[in-house]
Amino acid sequence: MTKGTSFPNPLNEITLAAGKYTEFKDSFNGIGIYAYFFPEDVNLVKAYLENAKRYLKLYNALICKFPYRRFSIVENFYPTGYSRPTYTLLGQQVVRLPFIPRTSLGHEILHQWFGNLVYVDYQRGNWAEGLTTFFADHLYEEEKGGFTKKEREFMETLARQAVEAYINEDKKIKVDEVPDSLRKKLACFVKLRRKIKKDKLL
Questions:
Q1: What is the pTM of this model?
Q2: Which of 40, 169, 178, 191 would you label with 28, given CA atoms 20 to 30 Å apart?
Q3: Do 27 and 53 lie in a common domain?
Q4: Whose CA is closest to 48, among 22, 9, 78, 16?
């Protein structure tokens, strides 16, 4: 059997995921949403498809139109949490955690823009992980008021230290000098939002 397809976006590599899956399909604004789950976990599919639509709606409005024609949530027997162009590969132990559809799934979907559509030069640091964490994990906690006073103080201190340490005299961030610590990357975006109007960045 021969099957062909076309993909107009440039790729650094071609990846393949295969398994004994049960396929489910939904859609949002013309985007096909697929779930490929093991038979023993099909009871989880509805939550993943519904939350995928919620995140696509959020980021379509917040950033821009979803860059691909489809998005798939693929289960894996390894404990993974990968995002690749058009799909995320989540381990079986991961998908069974009850909070994943409401949190980490959004993070992986956001990587379709930051990291998959726009690539990362890893030799200069992983800016995409910091930006994705800012627009996903940090945003979700902020919206529900989930940060404690201690957490806010920590973020503010880290943000101030990180930005003050890595901005030169012309007030331009030296991207190649920003450290690879995820928390410091996130802190830079938190501080940057406070430097400019909030609605310009979020």
A1: 0.70
A2: 40
A3: yes
A4: 22
